[in-house]
C-alpha cells in the first residue's frame, strides 16, 4: 500500500494542471482549439521523434508499437460497433479514440518513470508509440469519418506529421544517428510542454461542471472499454506470452498493462476539438476518467505488480 500511496501523491500535480486549464478557459478565455493545433502538429511529433531517437531499437522492440497498435484496433472496432447501436447523438465516432488509446503520454510517462525508472521508461515509450500511431491514423480517420467524406478524412490523416516523425526517427536511430547536443534542451522543453499543455486542454474543454458526464450512455461505454476491456486484453496477452509464447519479458508486460489502465487520452479532446465532433462530451468524459484514474491506477498497480 505504500507504493500505491506514493503513486497517488505523484499524480496530484496532474490534476492541479487540469484545474489550471479550466481556470484559463473559464476566466482568461484561452482557446483550447488553438492549443490543440499546436499539440497535434508541433509538440506531439517532436516528443515522438525524440523518444524513438533515444530508445534501444531491436527487431523485437521495433515490433512493439505494431503489437500495441493491433490491440488498439481490436478494442476500437469492437466498441465502435456497440456505439453505433447505442448512441444516436453523433458522438459514436469519438468512441474508438476514447476506448482504444489512453493518456499514455501526459499521464502515463510520469507514472512509468516512477514505477520502472529510466531504463523501463524507454520500453514504455516504445510501447506507447503504438497508441500514438493509432490515435493519429486510424483513430483520427474514424473520428473524422463521422463528419467528413472518406477522401477528406484520409487527407486529414495524411497531413499529420506524427507518423512521419516516427518513421524518420526509426531510420535515423538504426543508422546510428543521434540528436545534436545543442538541440537536446529544446526537445526536453517540448516534453515538458507536452505534459502541461496536454493536461490543461482537458480543463479548457470544461467550461461548466454542470452536466459533466453528458450522455450517460457515451460515458458508460467509454469507461467500460477503457477500464475493463483494455486491461482484460492486456492481462490475457501477459498470461499467454509468459506461459506459452515467451517472446517478451516482464518489463514489456508491465508496460503494456500500464498503457491499458491509463485514463482516456487528452488527445481525444484535442482531436474532437479540431474536428468539432462532440468536444464537450469528449472533454467531460475524459476529465471524469482522469479523476477516476486517480484511485484506479494505484489500486490496479498494487494488485497486479505487488
Automatic annotation (TrEMBL):
Species this protein is from: Marinobacter orientalis
Protein name: AEC family transporter
Record's keyword annotation contains Transport: yes
Main location: membrane
Domain of life: Bacteria
InterPro entries from the UniProt entry: Na+/solute_symporter_sf
GO cellular component terms attached to this protein's record: endomembrane system
UniProt topology in membrane: Multi-pass membrane protein
Entry keyword set: Membrane, Transmembrane, Transmembrane helix, Transport
Ranges annotated as spanning the membrane: 6-23, 35-55, 61-82, 94-116, 122-143, 163-187, 193-213, 220-240, 252-275, 287-305
Transport recorded as keyword: yes
Record's subcellular location: Endomembrane system
Gene3D superfamilies: 1.20.1530.20
Amino acid at each position: 500500500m505504500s507504493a500505491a500511496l506514493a503513486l497517488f501523491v505523484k499524480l496530484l500535480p496532474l490534476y492541479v494542471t487540469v484545474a489550471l486549464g479550466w481556470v484559463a478557459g473559464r476566466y482568461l478565455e484561452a482557446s483550447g482549439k488553438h492549443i490543440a493545433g499546436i499539440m497535434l502538429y508541433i509538440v506531439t511529433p517532436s516528443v515522438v521523434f525524440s523518444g524513438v531517437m533515444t530508445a534501444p531499437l531491436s527487431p523485437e522492440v521495433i515490433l512493439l508499437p505494431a503489437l500495441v497498435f493491433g490491440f488498439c484496433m481490436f478494442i476500437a472496432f469492437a466498441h465502435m460497433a456497440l456505439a453505433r447501436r447505442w448512441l444516436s447523438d453523433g458522438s459514436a465516432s469519438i468512441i474508438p479514440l476514447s476506448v482504444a488509446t489512453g493518456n499514455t503520454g501526459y499521464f502515463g510517462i510520469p507514472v512509468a518513470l516512477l514505477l520502472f525508472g529510466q531504463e523501463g521508461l524507454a520500453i514504455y515509450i516504445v510501447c506507447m508509440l503504438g497508441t500514438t500511431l493509432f490515435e493519429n491514423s486510424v483513430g483520427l480517420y474514424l473520428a473524422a469519418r463521422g463528419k467528413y467524406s472518406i477522401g477528406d478524412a484520409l487527407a486529414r490523416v495524411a497531413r499529420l506529421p506524427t507518423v512521419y516523425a516516427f518513421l524518420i526517427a526509426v531510420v535515423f536511430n538504426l543508422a546510428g544517428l543521434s540528436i545534436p547536443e545543442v538541440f537536446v534542451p529544446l526537445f526536453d522543453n517540448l516534453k515538458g510542454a507536452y505534459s502541461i499543455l496536454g493536461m490543461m486542454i482537458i480543463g479548457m474543454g470544461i467550461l461548466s461542471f454542470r452536466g459533466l458526464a453528458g450522455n450517460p450512455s457515451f460515458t458508460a461505454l467509454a469507461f467500460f472499454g477503457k477500464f475493463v476491456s483494455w486491461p482484460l486484453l492486456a492481462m490475457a496477452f501477459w498470461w499467454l506470452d509468459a506461459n506459452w509464447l515467451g517472446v517478451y519479458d516482464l518489463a514489456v508486460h508491465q508496460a503494456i498493462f500500464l498503457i491499458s489502465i491509463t485514463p482516456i487520452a487528452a488527445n481525444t479532446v484535442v482531436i474532437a476539438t479540431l474536428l468539432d465532433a462532440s468536444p464537450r462530451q469528449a472533454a467531460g468524459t475524459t476529465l471524469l476518467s482522469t479523476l477516476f484514474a486517480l484511485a484506479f491506477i494505484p489500486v490496479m498497480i498494487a494488485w497486479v505488480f505487488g
